[in-house]
Amino acid sequence: MEKITVKNLAILGSTGSIGTQAVDIIEAFPQLFKASVLTAYSNWELLVKQSLKLNPTLVVIGRKELYPKVKEALASTTIQVEAGDEAIEAAAAHEEVEMVLTAMVGYSGLLPTINAIKAGKTIALSNKETLVVAGEIITRLARENHVSIIPVDSEHSAIFQCLVGEKRSEMRRILLTASGGPFRNLSAQEMEKVTVKQALNHPNWDMGAKVTIDSASMMNKGFEMIEAKWLFDCSPSEIQILVHPQSIVHSMVEFIDGSIKAQLGVPDMHIPIRYAFSYPNRLSAPSDYLPLDKLKELTFELPDFERFPLLRIAFEAIELGGNAPCIMNAANEIAVRDFLEGKISFTMIPKLVESTLHSEEFIPDPTISDLVESNKKARKKAEEWVNLHCQ
User: Is residue 42 very low, low, confident or very high in pLDDT (cuts 50, 70, 90)?
Assistant: First the structure.
C-alpha cells in the first residue's frame, strides 16, 4: 500500500472567501493536508478560531495593532504569532510549507507570492492580481526556481484541466467563460443607477466584496484574460471571452483539429481548491456532483464591450504591457473601494480606471521596485481623480 504523506500548506488570506473554503478542505482531509501557516489581514477573531481548530505552526495578522488580541487568544497554545506585511511575506517562505495558497485580495498578494516562489514553494494561485501586475516577472521567477503554479480560479483550473495530457502547440484558443454578473441585461442608462447592494448580489457565486464588484463590472474577466495569458503562454488574441450565465461550463480549450474540451461542474470553489491541493490526483466529494439530467440549457454569448468598458481597458493594458496592467489594477482597487463606500457611482469605475491608466508614466520593462512605485503613484492619482470629480 502506498504510504500517505501529509502536505503542509500555507493559507495566505485564510479568513476570506477562498481561504475559509480551503480550511473546509483541510478539515475534511486531515490525513492529507496540514495548515502549517495561516494569515489574515484584519479578521483576527476568525483567524483565532481557525488556529484553535487547525493548530498551525505560525499565524500572522496583517494589522499590527491587532497582534496583542491574537497573541493573548492563542497564549495557551504553542502557535507562533507574528504581525505585519513583512511577516506575511516571510510566512510565505516558511521552511515547513510545501504549497502556498495565495488567497489574499488584490495587490497585497504580490510580494508574498514572489517570496514563496523564491523559496521554491508550489503555488496554488487564487490571487489573480499577482499575474495582472507582474505576470512576466512571476512566470520567469517560477521557471528559474522550478516552481509549479497551479491555478485556483474556477476558469483557470478548468483550462488547466483541459490541457492536462495535451500539447500546448496544439491549442488553438482558450474559451474563457464569464457569468456576466448581475447586470448582464441592464442598459447603460440603467447601470447609472446601480446600488452597492445590487452589485454585491451575484447570481451564481458567493465571493468577497472586491471580487463580486469586479465580477459585476467584468473587470474580473479582464484580469482573468491577463492571468490566462501568463499561465498558459498565449497571446490575448488567442483568448475568447464568452458570457455563460449558468456558470456550469467553467472554461474550454479549442484545439487545432477543431475539438473543444470543457470542464463542467457546480459553481462551488471547493472543487478547484481541492483539485489544486491534490493535483495530480482527485479527491472524492459526492456533494459536488453536477445533476446533468436537471440542466435545461447551456448558453453562450459574446460580451458587450460598450456596456462593460473595463474589458476593453484590460485588453488595452496588456497590449501596452510594462507597468500598464499594474496601473490599471491599482486604479481599480481604489475605484472599487470608493464605490463600496458610496463615494463614486458604478459607472464611474471604468472612467476612473481609464483616466489613471492614461495619465501615469509608462515603463516598458519594469522591475519589482518599479511596480511597487507604480502601484503607489497610481493609487494616489486615482484618489485625486475621485476628489476632483466627486466633491
Answer: very high
Dihedral over Cα of 264, 265, 269, 272: its sign: negative
Q: How many CB atoms lie within 10 A of CB 34?
A: 19
Enumerate the β-bridge partners of residue 375: none
State whether residue 24 is helix, strand or coil: helix
Q: Which residue has the higher pLDDT, 209 or 29?
A: 29
Burial of 313 (C-beta count, 10 Å sphere; 0-12/13-18/19+) = buried
Model confidence pLDDT, tens digit, residues 292-317: 888 889 999 999 999 999 999 999 99
H helical segments located in 55-194: 67-73, 85-91, 110-118, 129-144, 154-163, 188-191
DSSP, residue by residue, 345-358: -TTHHHHHHHHHHH
Give CA–CA dist 277/296, Å, rounded: 32
3-state DSSP helix/strand/coil percent for the chain, to nearest 5? 50, 15, 35
Pairing verdict, β 7-12 and 99-102: parallel
User: Under a CB-based contact definition with an 8 Å cutoff, are residues 18 and 103 in contact?
Assistant: yes
Report the C-alpha gap between 246 and 248 in whole angstroms: 5
Mean pLDDT of 353-372: 96
List strand residue ranges (DSSP E) for 238-365, in order: 239-243, 249-255, 260-264
Separation of alpha carbons 245 and 3, rounded Å: 43
CB 248 within 8 A of CB 173: no
Q: Are 112 and 90 in contact (CB under 8 A)?
A: no
